[in-house]
Amino acid sequence: xxxxxxxxxxxxxxxxxxxxxxxxxxxxxxxxxxxxxxxxxxxxxxxxxxxxxxxxxxxxxxxxxxxxxxxxxxxxxxxxxxxxxxxxxxxxxxxxxxxxxxxxxxxxxxx
Length: 111
Known about the structure:
This protein has 111 residues and is α+β, with helices and mostly antiparallel strands. The chain has helices at 49-57, 70-81, 88-106; strands at residues 5-11, 18-25, 34-39, 44-47, 65-68. It has one domain.
């Protein structure tokens, strides 16, 4: 299967130690775009659209946020964050559940 997600690693200010991991994309072109990231406080994968967006526009993160391939993201998740990187289908499902929860709470997006 070809990668349909882009993987981002967030590094500490020293630019050597990974402290975060995000995935952006969709498991299938027909599915909605999702962003999922590792929440170290809750030790869980969660929806992370706002986090990625904030990092991409904040100059403080310019050198600290790097795109990596999936195998590198898997290694960083396992060795540095102490977790497993979900499959692309699982990433999609995590993002979908968050979107469904938002819609239940606040109504459909754009309404």
